[in-house]
Amino acid sequence: MTDLDIRAAVADDVPAIVALLADDPLGAQRESPDDLTPYLAALERLANDPNQHLVVAVRDDRVVGTLQLTVIPGLSRRGATRSIIEAVRIHADERGSGLGTQLIEWAIEESRRQGCQLVQLTSDSTRKDAHRFYERLGFTASHVGFKLPL
Asked: How confident is the model at residue 1 (pLDDT cuts 50, 70, 90)?
């Protein structure tokens, strides 16, 4: 899989990223591929924040995966910096190909490069296959997450 390029997302990637986000039962309920305006505004905010890394995996000029990596400086854990991996999506044609592993490995290495001492992520409780995938990569389900819609 040497023909894979993992790079920063640009505006032209947004339709493909949104399609990936919407391509599952959960995403289909919360994403709006017909109106890219809020996504383009979000990309601009992300691009202007040095602690945000929205990347795409591109093969043969086609976006086949994406994830967002957020670097968070903190006081806890003796002033540790941590990263959060979010919105990992792989195109249906690429699932099972090892692309997800490559993206997560990229995020872990980038986290190390940025001086992070911890990488964390959340996964919806219904995504059992994703949980097995993350555990296979060495992540542990060590915390219970809570969310409050605003």
From this structure: very low
Contact 40, 78 (CB under 8 A): no
Beta-ladder partners of 120 = 84
pLDDT single digits (tens) 83-113: 999 999 999 999 989 999 999 999 999 999 9
Consecutive H or E run containing 55: strand 52-59
Helix (H), strand (E) at residue 68: strand 62-73
Single-letter amino acid code for the residue at 89: R
Q: What share of the chain is helix, strand, coil (3-state, %, to 5)?
A: 40, 25, 35
Its pTM surpasses 0.70: yes
